[in-house]
Structures are given as structure tokens and as C-alpha cells.
Amino acid sequence: MTAFIGAGRNLHQRALATADLWRAAQETQVLRDNLALLGITGWHSLLEAYRFFLSRRMTLATNEALLRAPASRIRRHVEAHVAIESREHWQACREHRGPLLIVTPHYGPFALGLLKVCLELGSERRVNAFYDPPQRNPGTACYGEILRKSCDNFRPIFNDRRGGVRALQALRNGEVLTMMPDVYEVNGQCLLVPFLSQLTYAMSGTAFLALKSGALIVHGYVESSDSGRVSIRFEQPYFMQVTGDDDYDIYRQTSRLLHALEGQLRRAPAHWVYLSQLRGRLDAGLAQVDGPGALRRLAGQLGRHLGIETREEILYAEH
Fold first, then answer.
1. Which regions form coiled coils (predicted)?
2. 3-state DSSP: the chain helix, strand, coil percent, rounded to 5?
3. Which pTM value belongs to this model?
4. Which helix (H) or strand (E) holds 13?
């Protein structure tokens, strides 16, 4: 009887392992199909798919370790293993006395990158992070716990009914705010913007906050290496271009944010959390322009909005 039970357990474990392998194989194929949209094919796509799984596992393991570690050990780890590239860009951000808007997708070990920013600024500035509350996205629950015990200058701002007001107040107070523009919710703040030579949804909130606060904007990306070291790459900071037409300015800035994301994905796609959803995001945008009549109507709307006429110009106006 004992042998029979043991054999049953072994079969169950093998079945679970086979199911895991099957799911991994399916996800790998989805990743390779999506990587092809970025021009990455052949064995290069297989390598990037492997890097995606490695990056995801390392991020999860890092968050779990940070949750267990005391604040002093976290600070020592960040100082020893997290580096900022493009120091001149980060220095320009630190020297700016007005509001600072750090734009980053859900990319790599975000918590470690945010820790580095908070510890670098110290008592100079308060750092606010805008993200979904844990009730909506359980994956964000670790951010507040990790940051609060390690940094006195951190404050979470949840994406809820009052979150936008708090975020704008923080910027107008000259504080730092991080935003993640690679998620969307189809509502009145959602726009269709060019992305990978197609159209996809993007939220206008980041551009709205930049417009109303006059914040300095910088794009940042947190990447982990195979050895476990983490680097933060900041691009050249800039101010949002303003023409006086708020709708036009918000649309143009939102397009610029997605264009920056596209460039980063072409450079290093494996760290993007939503890489396996890339095709679905593009399909969601195309669903809104299904058929030539709908496409012509959308092209006309965008053309009037941007002051241009042809669909090709619309798709590449901000590129």
C-alpha cells in the first residue's frame, strides 16, 4: 500500500513537471512571436526568451529577499550592487530644483531602482511612486513595505480616485514622482498612439502631469545582469514642449513616451514585464480601427489633431 501511494505521488509530481514544461514551451513560443515584432528572430529570439525568464525569476527572488532583510542590509546591498549609468544625466536631474518626473515602464527590478534613487537623494527630496494599489495589483504590495523600512523620503501614491490629485500636488511642491506609462485602462484618459508602426492604447496621465507641473522629465530603465548586479540607465532629461494647445501637447508627449518605450524594447526587451502581452496590446489597438471606414475616421481625427493628413504621417509623426 505504501509503495502504491509513493508511486502515485511520483506520477503526480511528474505530471506537474510535464505541465510546467508545457506551459514554459507555450510561453516561449509566444515570446518569440512577440520578439519578431521587434525584429528579433532565430536563435536571438530564443536567447532573449531565456533572458526574459531569468530576469523575471531574479526580480521575484530579489523582492522576496528585500522583504526579509533588515533596512541596514538593504542599504548596504544597494550601495554595493546597484549602479547608475549615464551619471551626467542623473546629475542634471539632481541639480534641478523644480519638480522631477521619472518615467519608467514595468521593467526589471523596479524596487531596487527606486531604492537607489531614494538613497541617492537622501533628505534632499521626497520621492513619490505612482502605481496601482495592492488590491488591484498584488504584485505592487512589496514596494511600499520594502521602501518604507529603508527610506525616510519615500511615499507611495496609489492609482485611485485621488491619486492624480496627490501626484500633481507632489510635483507642484517640487518633489520627485515616478510614473509607469506602459499600462492602460480603456477610459476617457486613454489615447491611441503610434507604437511599432501600429496603434496601441496609452494613458494620457503622465503627459497631463508634466504639462500642469512643468516638470523635468527623464526616462529611466532598471536592468539586472546574469551576475545579479543591477544598473539604472537614465536618458537625457528634457522639458515637455508646449504650444498652448493642451490636447495636442498631451497627445504628442504621450506618443513620445511610447516611442521611448519602443526604443528601449528594441535595445533590451527581456526585462519588460509585459513582453508576452505585446501582440495583444497591438491587436487591442487595431480592434478599434477594424475596417477601412473606421480607419479613415480615426486617421481623420488624428490628422486634424496633429495638423497632418495622411495615415503614414500620423504613424510616424513623433518618430
1. none
2. 60, 15, 25
3. 0.84
4. helix 2-37
Task: Give residue 225's region: left, alpha or beta (phi > 0; psi -120 to 50).
Answer: beta
pLDDT band at 294 (very low <50, low <70, confident <90, very high): low
d(CA 198, CA 43): 26
**Quick one: cell of 104?**
519608467
Backbone angles phi, psi at 10, to 5 degrees: -60, -45
> Which tens digit of pLDDT belongs to each residue from 100-158?
999 999 999 999 999 999 999 988 899 999 999 888 888 888 898 999 999 999 999 99
Query: Sign of the C-alpha dihedral, residues 318, 262, 193, 235?
Result: negative
Torsion over CA: 258, 263, 264, 268 (sign) = positive
Cell of 106: 514595468
Beta strands in 23-126 (DSSP E): 82-85, 100-103
* Residues across the chain: 319
Chain CA centroid to CA 182, Å:
5
Classify the C-alpha dihedral 66-69-70-74 as positive or negative. negative
Backbone angles phi, psi at 200, to 5 degrees: -140, 165
**Count of beta carbons in the 10 Å neighbourhood of residue 67:** 14
Backbone angles phi, psi at 220, to 5 degrees: -130, 145
Which of 77, 86, 160, 88 lies closest to 119, judged by CA?
77
DSSP helix/strand/coil, 221: strand
Residue with the three cell numbers 486617421: 299
Report the phi/psi class of residue 108: left, alpha or beta, with left for phi > 0 and alpha for psi in -120 to 50: left
All three cell numbers of 213, joined, read: 507641473
Locate the DSSP E strands across 151-262: 154-158, 176-179, 190-195, 198-203, 216-224, 230-234, 238-239
